[in-house]
Amino acid sequence: METKLEQIDGINTVFLSGEVDLDVADQAKEFIANQMVEGVQELHLNLKDVSYMDSSGISILIESHQKGAKNGTKVVLKEVSKSVLKVIMMAKLELVLNIG
Amino acid sequence: MDLIFHKDFLINSQSLKLIRNFSRETFVKINTEEILNQQEEIILAIAEAAQNILKHAYHTKFCDEKLKIKITKGQDKIQIDLFDKGTKTDPEKVKSRELGNVRPGGLGVYFIKQIMDKVEFISEDNSEWVNHLVLTKYIR
Q: Are A59 and B105 spatial neighbours (Cβ–Cβ below 8 Å)?
């Protein structure tokens, strides 16, 4: 898995790519958490290049969403890959997480 | 005739990728059109089951011991056997969480049960293994 941060139209966007599983979950979680500092109103997670995501990866999305809601940062999932969307839907989270 | 493939993996979170690769390679060898569109889901179920072994039977991401995965292509089913020597699992305690209770964690068992047709723990006397989990997907 690789992580990258870009600013797109003034919004910080975290790009995750490759396979997101238990082995890399802490790394991904920390990278995302570091972008959710005070004053950040919106954070995008771009998942277009995530080829595989397991329940550990889904936990990262839930945790980021909930932490954002608590701290005033709207976390939006962008360009969710087909394989990730399938897992999100299996967990019935498509109406819980912000998918834009 | 059944086709059987098996491999041992270190109790280590890095093994999850190797387990997925082994499963993908096995499905290529099995080459069963009936499960082709469900292959990635079955691989997710296998990886989630292995992840649960790491987390719950060994309570750690790293260990020198090994778990064994056996994939069998039968006439009407794909059977995946997972063996480990960790803490004995109480099948009564293996439960998925309520989906309405949105929180991180607790989804692995739910995914496995959603994807597979049958999930069972086999209790065996005189086995070299402590836990034996069998996941079955029927070929329709």
A: yes
Contacts of B97 in chain A (CB under 8 A): none
- Nearest partner of A22 among A48, A59, A49, judged by Cα: A59
Q: Taking CB atoms and an 8 Å limit, are B114 and A92 in contact across chains?
A: no
**Six-digit token string for A83:** 């394989």
Closest alpha carbon within chain A to B114: A90
Asked if B40's CB is within 8 angstroms of A21's CB, the reply is no
Q: What is the mean pLDDT of residues A63-91?
A: 96
Query: CA B85, B17, B47: angle at the middle one, nearest 5?
Result: 55
3 state SS of B49:
helix
Nearest CA in chain B to A89: B111
Count of CB contacts below 8 A, A vs B?
Answer: 61
**Which residue does chain A place closest to B18, by CA atoms?**
A23
B126 phi and psi, to 5 degrees?
A: 60, 20
Q: Which of B41, B48, B102 sits opposite A96 (nearest CB)?
A: B102
Helices and strands in chain B, H and E counts: 3, 5
User: Complex ipTM, two decimals?
Assistant: 0.93
Is it the case that residue B34 has pLDDT exceeding 90? no
pLDDT in tens, B63-119: 889 999 999 999 999 999 999 999 998 888 887 777 778 888 789 999 999 999 999
- What does the domain layout of chain A look like in residue ranges? 2-99
CATH topology of domain A2-99: Transcription Regulator spoIIAA (3.30.750)
Q: Is B17 within 8 Å of A91 when comparing Cβ atoms?
A: no
